[in-house]
Amino acid sequence: MMNQAPGSPEATVVTPALLREWRHKTSPRQTALVVGGAAAAPGAVILAGTAALRAGAGTLQLATAARHASAAGLSVPEAMVVALPETDDGAVSRTGDETLASYLDGARVLVIGPGLTDVDETGALLERLLPRVHEDARVVLDAYALGALSHDPALAKPVQDRLVLTPNTTEAAYLLGCDEDDLPDTPVAAQRIAERYRAVVTLMSCTAAPDGALWVDGSGHIGLATSGSGDVLAGLVGGFLARAGSLTQATCWAAHVHAVAGQRLIPGRGRVGLLARELLDQIPIVIAELSG
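That's the ADP-dependent (S)-NAD(P)H-hydrate dehydratase sequence above. Prediction below.
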């Protein structure tokens, strides 16, 4: 355990040694379905999907706006790509659940949110889609999916206790219904979100579970703020879940690998010049070092 300031929750420090104790030995690796990529943000679903593969997903399915489906398939030739219907404004339509129906039985992990736009369409899509998710599947919500969840917490009920949320600080404030300036300290905020939505939460250096358990990453978390970094993190969580680890273990692995991958880039790129896509090549190196 780590020392905490008075009134702070007690936390376990995530270290390489702890992660090695949690090492997954599973076969076969499972299928991850990543849903996102509206007309205005096609790259997000590619970042998330590639991160899922780098973390160990056995099969990747990318579901994205129809206009970008072919380009996504060329960008990630390892993936099967599903073309989703769009609204007139280029958002992924709420009717996408019908297109996805035939893929849900095979997917054991769903990552929903990277590159989605229009919180109303996203909320309606979640309302239709989440009750149809396979009973053994785990779900990761990110970006606009978190915004939709903050508007209607009941959306999470079909997948409660098999759900991971990956908010940044702005999204964390939405989930708690407060201004970002009023957000509690990170450990407290993470625990409150986890309890409210009955989900595992990764927020900056903290991972929290609904039962109050808390882990703090000991890597010297750098808080990557570059565009697309959150999409990579969501995909990493999905990829580690596809290796059949527990929600908390997979999330701690993902948060640690994400942070260390960013640290490796800073000497050559600096924080200002770091690009989210550069994290992808670092992921298997960090995982190999941790697994050695």
